[in-house]
Amino acid sequence: MSKKRKIPNATLNRLPLYFKYFKQSESNGVDRVSSREISEALDIDSATIRRDFSYFGELGRKGYGYNVRALVKFFSEQVQGTGLKHVILVGTGNLGSALLNYKFTNIHDKMSIIAAFDNKDSIIGNVINEVEVLHTDKLEEVIKDHHAEVAILTVPGEAGVKIAERLEAAGIKGILNFTPEKLEVSKKVTVHNIDLGVEMQALLFYMKHK
């Protein structure tokens, strides 16, 4: 039996883009697309696209292209998995509230935000986009009762480090981290960091050197 190929992080980061593209193509009634068409739509080199897809076997045929419906199904399983993911959000300030109002189902119809948490009395009890804001004291209870696996972390500063430790202890497997802090969790937890300051600097850099 051949050894399973390790998929590069760069490829994994592009999978949601491919999934969104194929899903949109399906909605537009497109039956098949070529790597050139994908390249033009996503601004990703055709050779990179073919290399990314090669990690998953034969997804298309030369001269035929890629079957949109088949690829929607495939990437749906790769990106979303086959089961419903219960997600919690910790920190419901301006950023957290904005994320709660974002329609995640547009890109991930197997993800459900079941609860949000905060420690401010003025926010606790509010309902944002049908999601109730609970006190952080109930964090572990909700994670256990709903078998939540994913957390979105938008608390300020160093509070994120302590919250992340509680999340791991309660059974969270993945954290989307919007705080600038490095989270002290084990390798059992997958952390995806989104530092808005760094992203803005990167944008300005690319604008200058484009």
UniProtKB/TrEMBL annotation:
InterPro entries: CoA-bd, NAD(P)-bd_dom_sf, Rex_bacilli-type, Rex_DNA-bd_C_dom, Tscrpt_rep_Rex, WH-like_DNA-bd_sf, WH_DNA-bd_sf. GO terms for biological process: negative regulation of DNA-templated transcription; response to redox state. SMART domains: CoA_binding. GO terms for cellular component: cytoplasm. The lineage of its organism: Bacteria, Bacillati, Bacillota, Bacilli, Bacillales. GO terms for molecular function: DNA binding; DNA-binding transcription factor activity. Modulates transcription in response to changes in cellular NADH/NAD(+) redox state. Gene3D superfamilies: NAD(P)-binding Rossmann-like Domain, Winged helix-like DNA-binding domain superfamily/Winged helix DNA-binding domain. Residues 17-56 bind DNA. NCBIfam families: PRK05472.1-3, PRK05472.1-5, PRK05472.2-3, PRK05472.2-4, PRK05472.2-5. This is Redox-sensing transcriptional repressor Rex. NAD(+) binds at residues 91-96. HAMAP family: Rex.
